[in-house]
Amino acid sequence: MFRMLVINPGSTSTKIAVFDDLNPVFVDTLRHSSEELAPYKTIFEQYEFRKSVILNALKEKDVPVESLNAVVGRGGLLKSIEGGTYAVNETMLEDLKVGVQGQHASNLGGVIAYEIAKSINAPSFIVDPVVVDEMDEIARFSGMPEITRKSIFHALNQKAVAKRFAKEKGVKYEDINLVVAHLGGGISVGAHRKGRVVDVNNALDGEGPFSPERTGSLPVGDLVKMCYSGKYTLEEIKKKITGKGGVMAYFGTNDARDLDRMMKEGNKEAELVYKAMAYQVAKEIGMCATVLKGEVDAIILTGGLAYGKDFVEWIKERVSFISEVVVYPGEDEMLALAEGALRVLNGEEAAKEYK
Ligand SMILES: Nc1ncnc2c1ncn2[C@@H]1O[C@H](COP(=O)(O)OP(=O)(O)OP(=O)(O)O)[C@@H](O)[C@H]1O
Ligand SMILES: CCCC(=O)O
Asked: How high is the pLDDT of residue 33?
């Protein structure tokens, strides 16, 4: 039996869990108020604070650090890499600290995992970070030589639900084609061809459908005019795209349940925006089906928005002609992280090396 600590840092919370093999000992969300995080200018500066909150939580739950066999964290905006479980090494730590592809709370996952594991001489890992990049060469062209399309998406949950579907069907993930739509605060839709995500929208930085708090793709000419209007700083524009875009920009909330409530109270504009988000998701799924040349074994809908019955129906009515649609609402990133680490601890897989 292997005991693992799992660390998944988000923008306002750090989710932690301890697993004995795949059995949860406890799962907890440690929330951080904006006052607590205010003193830190960068994500990396939050490192000591978040680490001590995690160690305190372990004490409260009576789980001695020494009882852990490994620590696994959600990682971060590293250099682009293929999917899998990676051992945390010095090169990775350096890249997580500087944020080679930007700042994201999950940059702290690998760093904290490494430091806690080091104190007890245990291994530390990250699994399927947001920079998993298995895109076909043909998918990388933007139409402007200076700009190459990037794969930044919910790789951990997309891969986890894809493998879950394969297991339930008694087939191998590497033998099937899937379109997976992660419908959360950000939305990513990936074309999975025989175990590789060969095309996907950059869910963090202005590609794909709009989402509860992101714009997704924008009419580029109008965006350029806005950038040169003199009204906004670079930081303000970036925030309008990621964080304050999408549903947040239309209605001042990133909670789709508010949209649902407004719609049920008769607000026609809320209904239209909610339906427009589903419409854009369906279009993106259709695009991925063409990437897979129509050979789609299933379309999987996952993430928090997949709890929304109407939202799921609006997508289904546009894409059901392509293939079966399977819905796995929510996400189980903590279990997916534990599974990734356990495959290495059990010797089923070798940990990959980050270079
Ligand atoms: N029952 C529900 N009906 C409709 N929407 C829901 C429901 N439950 C949660 N959601 C919506 O799901 C969204 C959050 O999804 P999720 O929890 O997957 O996102 P996240 O983890 O914060 O971000 P991300 O998935 O991008 O990492 C919110 O907009 C929330 O309102
Ligand atoms: C893009 C992947 C993770 C996120 O939504 O922040």
From this structure: 87
